[in-house]
Design brief:
- With 415 residues, this protein is of the alpha+beta class.
- The chain has 2 domains: 206 residues, no CATH class; 195 residues, no CATH class.
- Strands 2-3-8-5-7-6 form a 6-stranded mixed β-barrel.
- Helix 2 packs antiparallel against helix 10, helix 10 packs across helix 12 and helix 10 runs parallel beside helix 13.
- The radius of gyration is 33 Å and the shape is elongated.
- The chain starts with a helix and ends with a helix.
Length: 415
């Protein structure tokens, strides 16, 4: 269908002549609109990928890739279970834990907390918490010392600092002559951590595993075992296969199930943003339709002459498809180049703009992440470019079809 004549004439029509500067200007606007839409789409998706990656890393800095728990409420023979889990292919780290809820008081301040008992020497094998300590040390949690490590925001709420003593109140009650009283235990603050997420920094407290088991009357048992896998994206499949090898009383929960609502919300936001921003490209494609329609009207006599010289309707149609495709290809390539350049340098450009205009887009006291991360993925770039090209090609079909239907006698009647 496309021969040198159609390509030559189509390319010739993309250049301005004295009588159709306005049409060429509209073509330029369409091209820039396509480029702007593709650039915005690549940049925004890269930033959202960056936020998703950053939040996932921060969540997995506290939450393990998978957790093994028992339907009985506690795991008694956890040492034997740990040896079995460590030998399973794909598991790179195993650590026991005690998980409970309670309240922590300091002076006249009280805050609810999630209490987690850990083994300091083994916790680094399954989480990033040992590397998130900003004051004190996780190794200070020794059996019988009843030390506690608080999240930074939780410590701020309680007004507690290193060396202060806090009281942990458990929901379990003790029977006394005076009636039922909550169980209390005094702990010493030996560390403060910050993972950069308010959800954990404001509610999580760590204590030594044996101290937690004693406080919550678990004896030699633990709440479960945290697992670290060699590939966190294979966690659902590994968890299912691992659960099939364990006794029926055990269940394995991976990180995607623990935070399924959150990651589904992020995915939905990405989809909605893609649709909204892709409308920019669609508007530019509609501009391309109007440009080609005006071009067809302006070139009626030229089309009629080509028809009288032997050009077929398919040849006329190919001419305008070439013209519209050139605008779409150039605009898409410009947008892809601009989007890639912006996405790769946004972490440098945004701080420079903030310093230049003395503003801060993401205040650290409001947002969990105060910088603007970017994670550009080439499959997103090529997908956006391919869809934009397809939309531009579709936009050329109607004007080209109208051009092919022009009758030479009608077009030349008043010439």
């Amino acid at each position: 269908m496309f021969r040198p004549l159609e390509i030559f004439v189509g390319l010739r029509y993309t250049r301005a002549k004295r009588r159709n500067h306005f049409i060429s200007f509209i073509s330029l606007i369409s091209m820039l609109g396509i480029a702007l839409g593709v650039t915005a789409l690549i940049t925004v998706l890269s930033v959202m990928n960056g936020f998703e990656k950053e939040l996932r890393l921060r969540i997995l800095g506290v939450v393990s890739h998978a957790t093994v728990q028992s339907d009985a409420g506690s795991v008694r023979d956890w040492a034997g279970l740990r040896r079995k889990l460590e030998a399973y292919p794909g598991v790179t780290g195993v650590a026991p834990f005690v998980h409970a809820e309670g309240m922590i008081s300091h002076g006249d301040r009280v805050a609810g907390a999630i209490l987690q008992g850990v083994l300091p020497a083994e916790e680094s094998a399954v989480s990033e918490l040992p590397r998130k300590i900003v004051a004190g040390s996780l190794e200070a949690l020794t059996p019988g010392s009843y030390g506690i490590v608080l999240g930074q925001d939780l410590a701020y709420t309680l007004g507690a600092t290193l060396g202060d003593q806090v009281i942990v109140i458990t929901p379990q009650a003790s029977v006394t002559p005076a009636g039922f009283l909550p169980r209390l235990k005094r702990f010493t603050v030996v560390g403060i951590f910050s993972v950069g997420m308010y959800e954990y920094d404001s509610a999580l407290a760590l204590m030594q595993l044996e101290d937690a088991a004693t406080l919550y009357r678990l004896g030699d048992g633990v709440s479960g075992l945290h697992l670290k896998l060699d590939d966190m994206f294979r966690a659902p499949a590994l968890s299912r296969s691992l659960e099939a090898t364990l006794p029926e009383e055990y269940r394995v929960i991976d990180w995607t199930r623990q935070h399924s609502n959150f990651f589904r919300a992020v995915k939905m936001e990405k989809t909605v943003m893609f649709v909204i921003l892709f409308l920019i490209v669609a508007v530019a494609a509609f501009n391309l339709v109007s440009t080609l329609v005006m071009m067809v009207t302006d070139k009626r006599s030229d089309i009629a002459i080509l028809r009288t010289l032997g050009s077929s309707p398919a040849s006329i149609m190919a001419i305008f498809i070439v013209q519209g495709s050139v605008v779409g290809v150039i605009g898409t390539l410009m947008g892809m180049a601009g989007g890639v350049a912006l996405a790769l340098n946004i972490e440098t450009l945004v701080p420079a703009i903030e310093r230049l205009f003395h503003v801060q887009f993401l205040a650290p006291d409001v947002y969990y992440i105060s910088d603007l991360p970017s994670d550009m993925r080439w499959n997103d770039v090529f997908s956006i470019g391919g869809v934009a090209l397809a939309l531009c090609l579709l936009a050329t079909l109607y004007p080209a079809w109208r051009a092919a239907r022009i009758q030479p006698a009608e077009a030349l009647r008043y010439e």
